[in-house]
Design brief:
The chain is of the alpha+beta class. It is built from 3 helices and 6 strands, in the order ββββααββα.
């Protein structure tokens, strides 16, 4: 759970915990509701962590013993459930202007799931928008 002390706004920079972003490089700020597609990378990561090595070790599924098939399928299901559980519902993002050829892009400052955090980040979004507009 986040708290108001995690945010700091000065004349030159916006800080969240240990990260600092110069105000001159921030174009916009938003709190985005994340979809399942936005969390797809994290779901795939946890699937691979739980069952990827076992899938790679099986030369062919048909010739594998039944216990190995059960193991790999159960690890895949556990990885999928764990990945879905770890998904965030919201993200606090800033539109940041980089100094190199990267250009302008949305950066996730924080990801969260609770409604109380949503209210806090909406409040900080309003404060930050007022600072650079």
């Amino acid at each position: 759970m986040y708290k108001e002390a995690d945010f700091k706004l000065s004349q030159e920079a916006f800080s969240f915990k240990k990260d600092s972003y110069p105000l001159s490089k921030i174009n916009n700020v938003r709190v985005k509701k994340l979809s399942l597609l936005d969390n797809l990378g994290q779901i795939i990561f946890w699937l691979f962590i739980f069952s990827g090595a076992v899938w790679l070790a099986i030369p062919s599924l048909e010739s594998s013993p039944i216990w190995l098939k059960v193991l790999v399928i159960s690890l895949t299901i556990i990885g999928l459930v764990f990945g879905l559980y770890r998904c965030s519902k919201y993200a606090f993002q800033i539109e940041f202007r980089h100094i190199d050829e990267t250009g302008v892009q949305w950066i996730n400052v924080a990801r969260f799931s609770s409604k109380s955090d949503y209210a806090l980040f909406e409040q900080q979004s309003t404060i930050l928008k007022a600072a650079f507009l």
